[in-house]
Amino acid sequence: MRLGAVVPAAGRSRRMGADKILLPFAGATMVETVVGKLAAAGVVRTVAILRPDLSEAERLVRSAGAEVVVNPDPDQEMIVSIRLGIERLEGSVDAFFVWPADHPAVHPSTLARLADAASRDRAVIPVFQGRRGHPAVVGAGLVADIARLPVDGGLRQLWRSRPDAVRELAVDDPGVLENLDDPEAYERARRRVGSDSGEDSGGKSE
Question: Over the chain, what is the mean pLDDT?
Answer without folding.
Answer: 92
